[in-house]
Amino acid sequence: MTVKTLNDLKCGEKGRIVKIGGGGSIRRRLLDMGVVSGSEVKMERVAPLGDPIEIKVKGYNLSLRKQEAASIQVEAT
Length: 77
Fold this sequence. Notes:
By secondary structure, this protein is an alpha+beta fold. The chain contains two helices and six strands; from the N terminus they run ββαβββαβ. The chain has helices spanning 24-32, 66-69; strands at residues 3-5, 14-20, 40-46, 53-57, 60-64, 72-76. A hairpin with a 6-residue loop joins β3 (40-46) and β4 (53-57). The protein is globular, with a radius of gyration of 11 Å. The mean pLDDT is 89.
């Protein structure tokens, strides 16, 4: 299995969160929303211009900026 960033996943592709980078309030907010190490995520869709992206995590859909998604490392499954 390969490790890549969350924004590198293709639509419909799944992965497991390995590491959440970044810092400060953005990292804290991601953790509060359920984006934690070990969680399964699925790339749902990408906006026409590429930003934001929509993922499914813990049973709900979450939209993230590409910059935020680039700080999250996932293991493709």
